[in-house]
Amino acid sequence: MRAILRTLAIALAGACLWAAPAAAHRVHAGVTEIAISAATGELQISHRVYGHDLIEALGTEVTDEDAWFASPEGLAATGAYAAAHFRLGEGDGRLLEPAYVGAELDGELLWIYFAAPAPADTSAFVVDNDLLADAFEDQVMMTNITINGVVRTAMQGPGRRDPVRIRFGGP
Fold this sequence. Notes:
Layout: H1 2-23, E1 29-36, E2 42-50, H2 51-58, H3 65-70, H4 72-85, E3 86-90, E4 99-106, E5 109-117, E6 124-129, E7 140-147, E8 150-156, E9 164-167
Parallel strand pairs: 1-7
Antiparallel strand pairs: 1-2, 2-5, 3-6, 4-5, 6-9, 7-8
């Protein structure tokens, strides 16, 4: 019995190792980080997604991702897309208007940067992070907001696409 279980475990492990490259990046997920810069006092917003997923969402044919994301056309398309699919509001729902700073490709990962004046009241935010949800129905976006060393997270994905309210302290 032990020999059968050991053989089965080895076969299962081998199947998992063989399937790992084929299963690489089958999940569509990204992360947004928001924090107040100690140097400037403004909100710094950085989105991290897979570059090839954004290219697919844009419906663009690209042969050299590095060159395209570094080009004026690629940078403009990236900023316009992210601005249209990510909204951040103050606790009372008034939308902030982040300014696009730029983007850079790091391997497969694309970093997209925005900045906005920090609101006077940072006790609550409303997050609506729909990056890539229009292209991939299984897309999950995690948004982390850090205020005074405290991190709060909003998760949006399949079945959970509505805006999320994040609170820091109080009821």
